[in-house]
Amino acid sequence: SSSELNCSRKSNITMVTWKISPKVGGPCTMGYRADQNKTDRTNCSDSMNWKFRPDGDPTLEIRHVGIAHEGNYTCELVTTEGNFHKTYYLTVLVPPRLALYCDNHGDPVCEAAAGKPAAQVAWVLDSNSTPREEGHDNGTVTVLSKLTARSTNMTNATCIVSHPAGNQSKTIAC
């Protein structure tokens, strides 16, 4: 939902600059000058702002974090003690949507749709399955796995989807 990127907390701040280079779209900068008590922003979305007053805490807050926010974030801090830099690379996890259905041959199909990174799909009592990945323009991946050559006494098929954003499972009888 939101993310906070901390810059070094120092006293006697003269100037703070956040330089943001997202993977998608153009660069953005946010700056603060203590001598003018002035903040400025160039090409930054409204979802990015100072968490507090930048003269006391130059933390950057990103609200409603999405894939478009992925990229490099560098804080440059100038104080009477010297200059300080801190760089982050923001990666966004997208949990896949799990769907389990029977195809027109009566075989169970497990779909982990639009996850980032690609999910791992497995079956309980796997007899024969081959996952197939389909990449999307926004960086997400859909993984499809079809369970075939099932034993005749197996009535239920359970699909397990493993992902860094959380694991899911569903059971179906085809």
TrEMBL record:
Keywords: Disulfide bond, Glycoprotein, Membrane, Receptor, Transmembrane, Transmembrane helix
Origin: domain of life: Eukaryota
Cell compartment(s), UniProt: Membrane
Single GO MF descriptor: signaling receptor activity
Any one GO cellular component localisation term in the record: external side of plasma membrane
Residue stretches making up the Ig-like domain: 58-173
Topology term for the membrane: Single-pass membrane protein
BP GO terms, sorted: regulation of neuroinflammatory response
Family assignment from sequence similarity: Belongs to the CD200R family.
This protein's name: Cell surface glycoprotein CD200 receptor 1-A
Species assigned in the record: Opisthocomus hoazin (Hoatzin)
